[in-house]
Amino acid sequence: xxxxxxxxxxxxxxxxxxxxxxxxxxxxxxxxxxxxxxxxxxxxxxxxxxxxxxxxxxxxxxxxxxxxxxxxxxxxxxxxxxxxxxxxxxxxxxxxxxxxxxxxxxxxxxxxxxxxxxxxxxxxxxxxxxxxxxxxxxxxxxxxxxxxxxxxxxxxxxxxxxxxxxxxxxxxxxxxxxxxxxxxxxxxxxxxxxxxxxxxxxxxxxxxxxxxxxxxxxxxxxxxxxxxxxxxxxxxxxxxxxxxxx
Length: 246
Prior knowledge:
By secondary structure, the chain is mainly alpha-helical.
């Protein structure tokens, strides 16, 4: 059973994410000046997306506690995440996405299983993951193995990074929203039907919007940063298309 409240919030999140990523693309390819406002905007947007995913997990796992279903979602998300890793590694001179939002969400849906049983303590654990973030972030290692935790090599740079600390805390906070939604009357709000539709198709929009935005920017203005390795495009694009068809 779907809940319009979750679809609506996710729809708002995906709209804001498209705006945020467009600004980021301008910064990357056209050297658009960095603004603290857009940094806060990006963090707020990501928080909505992760929070909603936590609520979605709670509802899904409460309705049907199927490990097979969770593993299927994990494989789907981690496969798409790895595809993004390969594409960014081949297309860009720096900024490879090793553990972006799709990698994180894949792992979060597995990690969340035991926390579902500790519902009364979910907020406490959520706060711990968030509060401990500065301590974890201060630790560095000359390896990428600990990236999921938030431990990075010195001077690490990536376009997209969602470590467990603090983002799994935001994910767990979504449990309470999911619980509240399940207790609601589930009224069909026609005025926000379009936003809900976007929310139900958020993964497709997420996968397609960046290639479209980047293509528009490159066609109109080119790559003023010189960060894109254009010679790899003929090799990467057919591979990406074949993977999507599978």
